[in-house]
Structure formats: C-alpha cells, structure tokens
Amino acid sequence: MAEEVSKVFDTILVLDFGSQYSHLITRRLREFNIYAEMLPCTQKISELSWKPKGVILSGGPYSVYEDGAPHVDHDVFALDVPILGICYGMQELAWINGKQVARGEKREYGPATLNVVDKVSPLFQGVDHSRVWMSHGDKLHGLPTGFKVIATSDNSPYCGISHESKPIYGIQFHPEVTHSTHGKILLKNFAVDLCHAQQNWTMENFIDTEIQRIRNLVGPTAEVIGAVSGGVDSTVASKLMTEAIGDRFHALLVDNGVLRLNEAAMVKETLGDGLGINLTVVDASEEFLSKLKGVADPEKKRKIIGNTFIHVFEREAAKIKPRDGKDIEFLLQGTLYPDVIESISFKGPSQTIKTHHNVGGLLEDMKLKLIEPLRELFKDEVRHLGELLGIPHDLVWRHPFPGPGIAIRVLGEVTPSQVQIARMADHIYIEEIKRAGLYHKIAQAFACLLPVKSVGVMGDQRTYEQVIALRAIETSDFMTADWFPFEHDFLKRVASRIVNEVDGVARVTYDITSKPPATVEWE
Ligand code: GLN
Predict the structure, then answer these.
(1) How far apart are the CA of 62 and the centre of ligand 1, in A?
(2) Mind spelling out the 3-state secondary structure of 137-165?
(3) Which of 173, 371, 432, 512 is most buried, by CB atoms within 10 Å?
(4) What are 216-269's pLDDT values in tens digits?
(5) Is the minimum distance from the CB of 156 to ligand 1 under 6 angstroms?
(6) Which CATH superfamily is domain 208-397 in?
(7) Where are the alpha helices (DSSP H) in 219-297?
(8) Which three-class secondary structure state does DSSP give residue 224?
C-alpha cells in the first residue's frame, strides 16, 4: 500500500536504525508537505518498487564498530540520490569510508551550538549558530575518505561533514527533535534544495489518490465491511470508503452496552444521516452485559469484550448480503501510521510485530482481506483529512475512547446500573469541560466509578454511596502525560452537579497522578 503512495508522491526514504526519534524525521518532513516513508535499516534497496528522491539514515542505539551492529545496504549509494546520515547514520557513513569511529572520552547529551564552516552549504542555509541537540557516546576520530568538515560545535570537530563531490552529508546532532531549534529548516533544506522533492503531500491530494487506489483494489463489484465506534479514525476511514465505493461499503456499529451516553443514537445521526455512510446499528448491549456479569478483573473484562465483539460482528456481518450474491471480501481497518511504525521499527534480533487481536480474529474466521486507508497517516493528518471530508469539527477533535469503553471505567463488577452512574457522571463532566472552553486544551478526560462506598449527608439524611474519580490529562503523544490543572471553581461546579444530579454518588475526587507512574485509564 505504502508503495503506491510512494509511486505517486516524491518520497524521502528514512532508514531506521532503531533511534527513538526516527519516526520524528518522517513527521517533520511531512509537516512541510513532503511525503516520507520509514523502513527498517535492513531494507534491501533492490526490493523497493519505487525510487526515493533522497535517503536519510537515522540514529540508533548501537555502535557501528560492534559485532552485530546494523549496516546499510550499499546499494543505497547506487541510487545516486542525496543521502543524509544523522548521528548513528553519520557514523555509519564514516565507518563505510575508513572506519574512523570509536568510543568518545565522554558522552555528549544535550544542547550545543552549531558553527557552520561551509557557509554556502545548501544543507545549513538559515541554521548557523542555532541550538542543536546531541545524544551520542561514539565519535568520528578523523575525516572519512573523500569527505570534508562543513560544521563544528564546541565538542564535535565533526559536527557536520559532506562528501567532496557527491551529495552525501552527515550530522552528529538530531535535527528532528524540537530541541534543535532550526532542525526543521535543515531537513527541509535537505529534502527540497538537495533532493528536489516536490512539496505536494497534502490531504487534498491524498484524498484523490486514495479514492482511486481503493477503487482499483476493491474492483467494480466487491463489497467491504468495517466497524465504526464514533471515534475519529473509524469515521474518517468509513467516510473515505463511502466516497470511493458508495454503499458497497457497510459500516457496523455494535452497541456493546458500555458506550457513552446516547452514543449509538449520535453515531446513527452523524454518520448515517449526516455523512451518508451505509450504517447498521446493532444493539448487543444485553449480550455484552450478561457476559460481563460477576467479572471484576480488568484483563478478563477486556478479553470478554474483545471476544464478544468478534462474535457479534461475524454474526451481524453474515446478515449483510452483497448485491453480486458473493460474500463480503474486505474488512476496513482504521490503522494509523504510528501502529505501522511500531511494527516495522528496527529493534534488532528480538523484533516483535504487534497484531491487533480483533482484526486478526476476524480476518481468519471470515476469510477477509484487510483494507487500511489511513495506514500512511499520523493522527493530525487523519484529523485534517476528516475536516476536508466534511466530518463535523466536534467529532474530528473528539478525545480518544477505549474499545472496552465504560466497562474499564466502572472499577470492579460491571452492572447496568453501575454503567449508568459512570455514564451520567462522565456526561456532566464533559459537558462542563466544553462549556468552560477547555475541551481542546485537554487530551483526554473522563469519569470513573470507584467500587467503594463513602458516608455523606444530603437533606439531613445520612447517605452511604459511591465515589466518582475525575481524570483529565495533557499530553502530546500519550506515552507520558500530566494531569490537567483545572481552576478550583471549575472542579467545585462539576463535583456539585455530579452529586446533585447522579443518584448513587456521594463524593467526587480529582486524580492528580501523572503517567508514569499511573496509566491514563484506571483499568
Ligand atoms: N550509538 C551511537 C552513539 O552512541 C549513536 C547514537 C545515536 O544515533 N543517537 O554515538
């Protein structure tokens, strides 16, 4: 799939040597409309079905001189396109051209000031004297054969090097991290001025290419099925399918009984009526809730929901009869690029591929072929795409919601009345967040129902009821997160509304734990 995008858009190939920042190189390039694709450093160049406009060798945790260190396929030089080595990538270029790499006396981690020696170097236009970010322990101990120094820093005499006659560059620092203040300009200089890549990677262009690609793939008669959840990814993927093949795409919303308040009705209205997606809503709430009865263990709850979902989906899908009388052939999946990166990034010999439990099961049982139109996209690109496809702003910018839904926000046993309490409290909380204009400042917010009772007093009567915990986090990537600093008046208002309006709640608390050590969800 990625190959086809790379055939249409000028592409910079990022070969990943395992750095934790590799995917950021791809991101930064796309931010100025250049398509970039990351592949593991072990990629054989002869096996590529497209030709990159330039190649970037990423950083990595290994040392080029150690046994078993990963090395680039030398055919990359025969491509005759510009090459940029970053940190390990530069050390790799040096290793290939004279082996002058060894452990430095001390590690260099943190900021340094870039001092450009070759003032006319296209790579460094507009970046001289800027702050660059270092993270290395190995060093070049001499110039690689055929190279010259084009930049230095206080600690690195070989902070930037380039080949005397070919467009091959190496830099010791990491331009892809935001701590390198002008790093983005440097990457743009490389891609645009040196590689001459066109800046045409826009979501407008992607829509056209992707619709055409889906049509070719599915053909004139086959039909496609996909699950929708009310979330951004599945909605955008479904809308794109509908644009491509109309009602030969069937969307299925399984109401598992642990969705948010009025969710099924909202999805029907927005996706079905509003966006014209061929949608079937199946109410399986009783089936899910009866299976969850008596189960308090979070992992068991997740498994039950996952398995029941597969079961219900298969059963309901079998009721859909394609017009050509054949079976449904494809399953739509809203996989995003970060999941793809996770599965292809270079992790050495112990590389593991993550598979999605639900999809794997469905593909096997139903003999379906997978179709993943968002596979090349980052989340912000998906949102932009969603806006262009006319999906309502509120849906496009919705907070993420976990697959097992409210079942993992009702701690302990999940019963219909517990779900209702959690659902009502959550609804009030989110409503107040929106009213206060805070929804888009928060990455994720929700209410949890705790399995404890607490004494209270209401109207002179003793009460003995449950506790709601509120959570709201700020984060850019969900890997680490901090709790959101609400004004006290806001918390006061929410707490008072929840206790007054939701039967069964006597007390409200606010979760002030960051991630790590806590996770975003409570279960
Ligand atoms: N492992 C190499 C070093 O320590 C490269 C580090 C990197 O690419 N960030 O120098």
Answers:
(1) 6
(2) EEEECCCCCCEEEEEECCCCCCCEEEECC
(3) 173
(4) 999 999 999 999 999 999 999 999 999 999 999 999 999 999 999 999 999 999
(5) no
(6) HUPs (3.40.50.620)
(7) 232-245, 263-267, 285-292
(8) strand
Report d(CA 298, CA 304) in Å as an integer. Answer: 10
Token pair for residue 66?
């150690």
* Active-site residue, 87 included: yes
Catalytic-residue membership of 195: no
Same fold: 10-194 with 208-397 = yes
CATH 3.40.190.10 for domain 416-510, yes or no, is: no
**ipTM, two decimals:** 0.92
Only one residue has tokens 């296209």, namely 122
- Assign domain 10-194 to a CATH class: alpha beta
Q: Whose CA is nearest to atom 8 of ligand 1?
A: 59
All residues at 6 or more sequence positions from 311 whose CB lies less than 8 Å from its CB, including other chains: none
> For 52-95, what is each residue's pLDDT tens digit?
999 999 999 999 999 999 999 999 999 999 999 999 999 999 99
Can you tell me which atom of ligand 1 is nearest the CA of 87? 8
d(CA 141, CA 231): 52
- Helix runs in 246-378, H state only: 263-267, 285-292, 298-318, 337-344, 357-366
